[in-house]
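User: Can you predict the 3D structure for this chain?
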Amino acid sequence: MQVISSIAELRARLNEERAIAFVPTMGNLHEGHLDLMRLARENSSREHGSCVVASIFVNPLQFGPNEDFDQYPRTLAADCAKLQGLVDVVFAPSASEMYPVQQTVFVEPPPVASELCGAARPGHFRGMATVVLKLLNIVQPQLALFGKKDYQQLHIIRTLAAQLNLPVSIVGGETVRAHDGLALSSRNQYLTEVERSEAVFLYQTLQAMRRSVLQGARDFELLQQQALKALSDRGWLVDYVAVRDQSDLQPASGGQRDLVILAAARLGKTRLLDNVEVCIGE
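Assistant: Here is the predicted structure, written as structure tokens:
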């Protein structure tokens, strides 16, 4: 496994590869990331070639002025140890390598980027989409993998690839969970012991909503309000709980079959995301 920090060296290394599978990350890797690496290897071996590339880069463009950019865990040595045997190349550029001059050209994401997480984090998806496009242009993979835990992000990246005619297939990896159901996240380490015990309630709330929908509930506004109250009553600060259409992330109206229930809420200082898909008629 090679660890490369310069764009020129990376391009030289990948120049002779027949095809590439790519997993972008911000590091501080957990089992959810590693599952994406294994999925990349499985898919690349079968269909796309043999080279798997992971990137580790904490992107300043997608953090707001009062967010945790400076505190975000940077664990490159430990991350590389975890990636041994899973990937062929780790691309770990500095901020100056990715942004040698002030970035003045940005990707304008679709309108849904101003909703859900975008409403709570203005500019986040603009910065995310910009760095993802830069990374895809640098690595030039045939396959790129992203986790479904960040469902809105995955939707925006798929839209970006389709509408900008990028020659890459975007694959979503299933959310990896702890034994009690909590979605794995690099930010989970911010939780205190008491908060960690409470954190699983977010997933339990979404699962209860999913069961209600499968049992015939179609008043999605009521379901959302009930979930918001249940979380708030336990001390959560809720950004949103929303039932949306999987295909476009527009509010569900009752006629769609494939839905996703999404939520973001703060527990103490930690902002947690989760979602569950629900297919009516399953």
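The beta strands are 2-4, 20-25, 51-56, 89-91, 143-147, 169-173, 237-245, 258-267, 270-279. The mean pLDDT is 95.
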